[in-house]
Amino acid sequence: MQRILSDQLVPHTGRTVRIAGWVHRRRLLKSVAFLIVRDSAGLAQVVVTDPVVRAAVEALPEETVVEVVATVVVNAAAPAGVELTDPVVRPLGPPAAPPPFDLYRPVLGAGLSTQLDNAPVALRHPSRSAALRISAAAVAGFRAALDTRRFVEIHTPKVVASSTESGANVFALDWFGRPAYLAQSPQFYKQLMVGVFERVYEVGPVFRAEPHDTVRHLAQYTSLDAELGFVADHRDVMVVLRDTLAGMLDAVGGRAGEALAALGAQLPAVPTQIPSVHFADALRIAGAPADEPDLAPAHERALGEWARREHRSEFLFVTGYPMAKRPFYTHPDPARPGYSNGFDLLFRGLELVTGGQRLHRHADYLAALAARGEPVEPYAGYVEAFRHGMPPHGGFAIGLERFVARLTGAPNIREVTAFPRDLHRLTP
Amino acid sequence: MQRILSDQLVPHTGRTVRIAGWVHRRRLLKSVAFLIVRDSAGLAQVVVTDPVVRAAVEALPEETVVEVVATVVVNAAAPAGVELTDPVVRPLGPPAAPPPFDLYRPVLGAGLSTQLDNAPVALRHPSRSAALRISAAAVAGFRAALDTRRFVEIHTPKVVASSTESGANVFALDWFGRPAYLAQSPQFYKQLMVGVFERVYEVGPVFRAEPHDTVRHLAQYTSLDAELGFVADHRDVMVVLRDTLAGMLDAVGGRAGEALAALGAQLPAVPTQIPSVHFADALRIAGAPADEPDLAPAHERALGEWARREHRSEFLFVTGYPMAKRPFYTHPDPARPGYSNGFDLLFRGLELVTGGQRLHRHADYLAALAARGEPVEPYAGYVEAFRHGMPPHGGFAIGLERFVARLTGAPNIREVTAFPRDLHRLTP
């Protein structure tokens, strides 16, 4: 008999079916026992009256993997309106050891640290798995939005001979006896691939050896990168980003609606035109001194509130960040060269996306590196490509975990990451 | 005026359009000059008769990025039956330096080493970019096939505290002062996630510090991993793999048909049931001694020819590899415990996929490690999870680059990899 999932019971009402999953919970009452089986689709209630079967169920602790052959009957009080009766219950493995927390309770009764130490089991709880389902849906939406716009997916090296962003916070490794580094971003490669496909994207891990121990930093995270050529300036990039975000949120709504509901999360609307303020105005709105070179988290929060109040938008572009605070490949604003054609996108008052227009002329790269006192040699393979014809281009990078955390209201990014890596955590 | 791509010219016949791209080639005849512009969609022929425009075009070397505003007219002799006349040509950047090889020739006239040294430019040639388009299509097909079958996409750590596969050939790195390693596969994590979602997949980089310098090994490659729970044995995994491969090839045909044609590649048919031979029989068919523990490349080639001859199949499963040659998490064949429930899939006589059923009982893991004289401690976080209820499960891993190389007939895997990493190559 073919196994069915718990969400396929209703059409099988009156018939004998086979389900399989984990013993989610047992309720051992006097005259009857209820066995709740969890599978990837949800929960199924099995009613046990036969004393022999009951004795077997009593010996199967929560999380034991079982198979149940039983009859589907209507019961308005059961989950989805049906339950399983006259069961034959067969374990598919040995009795499970009890996890360090009860997975059947609505809230996982353990601190985050215990959850992370026991991630393989903690992730089975809906509060944790829902975030990962949302994550999968968001990535699917990212790719679908860009596929429609003729972007080509690429896969680029994660080990490089020199650091991507100027210098610090890289993980060093030994590459067959040579020094090498984990890539902090696919920045250089996605730009180079604009020369091949015009429009490219990559979904992959990036590595930051930042000694931050905060709720919003990870040492490995999943970066959703896109880059496109033949732009007039950064505003063309912002249009694609807006549409990509809308596609991601549509996909989350469509593919992970139950997961959103499980977390009580609300999908934000993406305005047709996301409001945008120049950095200089952003400082004023946030009440920061006019000579601040960057936005602090408190400024971002203030801007998020302003966007919600003034524009009813949970998203806000800040454009024109000072050149001094942006990487060397950033294109300056031709009208105000101290400012850049770089932008950030704030989501609910937190930086979610960084992007902008990049330099595309070889001479500009040489000048930019010289102005920062950096040698060309470590970047030779990258900079050299700009001698051979590169169009005006730009792009953006979305931090997947940060996006999901902000969307679900998780206070710590680790709550939406399966197996986080940070300053302290290298296992499991 | 909105830019259009070169494959959108025909519906604009008779109108003035704007295109942009790279100077692919110039043909400077006496009375007329032809400017061939390359963009992401293909080539467009621009006819230049005005002496002033001609002088400008003469000053724009191949690979310079240009914008052309001109009128679309029918010309049966031109690519796609139309060409552009009365052009205004504007460079979008400085004149390009000539690449070390001519990109407009049908065959890239440079050895692979020169191509790889100059990858950002070499990849612009159709012979190289086509393989990457096929690669993108194949990955899209992989995901679509598994999404349909309720698999959930995951993202797992690429830096781990101990090596995934027993011991050798790992890249060591410094993780905030602690020793760590680049993940050789997402094997442990995808198994653990079967406990959460039952069915998972991951597309991501894996790292092998193998001192191989061969045409079919890379030190970083893209692994297409899938794992599923509640299987009877490895044969359930093989069914999913068969359908996934069919989905990949369908997607390549549908999304990258032109790229296939450019490489003269033929899509193989995937039999409804891929032929399968047991390892012991495979040795006999390949003419190998009966006590060989593994298949050598020559054996795989012989088996590939046999499958084509006897089953008209370009694919062949070899099942039941000896336990001695499979990793410790491999499930033995209950009927013949010296053999495993592990399999390889050969594609045109080369190993393309490795997969199998895994152990799912905690006690079996302890026994398997003990039998190999390996301590449990390095695997503690992984092995421990099996105490908490894991279903019978299995999975597979497809090497993306190897798949594309075999599909396109590329003799060296580096030809289908954008920026390969190997024993000698860490740049660009």
UniProtKB/TrEMBL annotation, chains A, B:
The keyword Repeat does not apply. It comes from the Bacteria. The record marks 79 as: Important for tRNA non-discrimination. Residues 142-428 form the Aminoacyl-transfer RNA synthetases class-II family profile domain. SUPFAM superfamilies: Class II aaRS and biotin synthetases (SSF55681), Nucleic acid-binding proteins (SSF50249). It catalyses: tRNA(Asx) + L-aspartate + ATP = L-aspartyl-tRNA(Asx) + AMP + diphosphate. One of its GO terms (molecular function) is aspartate-tRNA(Asn) ligase activity. One of its GO terms (biological process) is aspartyl-tRNA aminoacylation. The keyword Protein biosynthesis applies. InterPro entries: Aa-tRNA-synt_II, aa-tRNA-synth_II, aa-tRNA-synth_II/BPL/LPL, Asp-tRNA_synthase_2, Asp/Asn-tRNA-synth_IIb, NA-bd_OB-fold, NA-bd_OB_tRNA. L-aspartate binds at residues 165, 208, 354, 358. Its EC number is 6.1.1.23. ATP binds at residues 208-210, 216-218, 351, 399-402. Keywords: Aminoacyl-tRNA synthetase, ATP-binding, Cytoplasm, Ligase, Nucleotide-binding, Protein biosynthesis. It is found in: Cytoplasm. Residues 187-190 are annotated as: Aspartate. GO terms for cellular component: aminoacyl-tRNA synthetase multienzyme complex; cytosol. Its main location: cytoplasm. Belongs to the class-II aminoacyl-tRNA synthetase family. Type 2 subfamily. Homodimer. Aspartyl-tRNA synthetase with relaxed tRNA specificity since it is able to aspartylate not only its cognate tRNA(Asp) but also tRNA(Asn). Reaction proceeds in two steps: L-aspartate is first activated by ATP to form Asp-AMP and then transferred to the acceptor end of tRNA(Asp/Asn). This is Aspartate--tRNA(Asp/Asn) ligase. The gene is aspS.
